[in-house]
Design goal:
Layout (H helix, E strand, L loop, with lengths): L1 H11 L2 E6 L1 H4 L8 H15 L4 E6 L2 H9 L8 H24 L5 E6 L2 H4 L1 H16 L3 E6 L13 H9 L5 E7 L19 E2 L22 H13 L4 E5 L5 H6 L6 E3 L8 H9 L4 E5 L1 H8 L10 E5 L7 E5 L5 E6 L4 H7 L7 H5 L13 E3 L2
Parallel strand pairs: 1-2, 1-5, 2-4, 3-4, 5-7, 6-8, 9-11
Antiparallel strand pairs: 7-8, 9-10, 11-12, 12-13
Helix pairs in contact: 3-5, 4-5, 8-9
Amino acid sequence: MSTYIRKEIFDSSQTLIIKIGSNVLTRGDDSLDLEIIQQLARQIDALISTGRRVVVVSSGAVAAGIGILGLTEKPQSLPELQASAAAGQPHLMSAWGDALRQSGHQVGQILLTMNDFRSRRRYLNVRNTIRTLLSFGIVPIINENDSVSIEEIALGDNDQLASMIAALVPKPLLVILSGIDGLYDGSPASENSKLISIVARPDDSLQKNVSNEQSSRGRGGMAAKLRAILNATTTGESVILANGRSVDVLEKVSRGEDVGTLFVANRTTIPAWKKWIGYTVPPEGKLVLDDGATTAVIQNGKSLLAVGIREVHGEFEQGASVQIVSPSSTVIGRGLVNYSSEDIRRIIGLKSDRIQEVLGHVPYGEVIHRDNLVVTD
């Protein structure tokens, strides 16, 4: 049954997003493992030959830069991390370009920060660039722009970036290649732990199986991978987590073989606009609702009115993304507000017909219209 499901999911995909971690791409001395890159490039060529398009989200720039700069370990200061990324990224792209050109494929580089996802216009530009490259038969190689990233614009890790990219392409299948074989039912170091082949309904309960420990060369870790996986499966994409150094791992994925852990999409695909609102653009504030508004939003799909808001947290302008929170402090969704935080505080708890007397105008009857609201829990 597992093989049937895996093959069905692969056959229904049109675009493969393959995220490859630093632990897969580098040797023990932090230099790039060119042999591994060549092996993966050969497998990517095989995937393309099935009629699918492939996007590569590749880590490894900082790790490659460590060796180029002559450092003995991963730097801790931001300037040295940025310098490592700047020195290592050309080396990383050269390695992918050389490997894929052997099978007749050209590559295109895209470097991103969170600002590219905050702005709807820039977000659509990223989507259009990726889709245009794919239409010309170019393999996009995507990485976070670590040479300029600071805390305010950092994406966090490439697992999250890959899940965001999955929302930009048609009929995606996200494959995360890491240094581990998949998700275990306990600590991977324990001989009693078993690899989980398939997770039919991924949810937050999976986090109990993992720690927050980061990988030795990357910035993620299993907890970060699960967060990215849950973001993808919640919006309708399936994900496979597997060991990138396993022999012919991508070809096994294409054949539906039982490799790694398959996380099955737990809802139908939601529209791209709502993916951006609910799972991509970062929230700038928070609105706490009363019980009635919580029920109206979750169960009835209603717009959010001022009368149902109890608290406003943060400072934000009209059009900003905010979290929507239940009285029990559970985040139930996100939405784009029609009013600034200052104006919402003035009309909090009021019926819509009283907004005029408080603000002097009523540009919108709703604080968040249902078309701009996504229930995430």
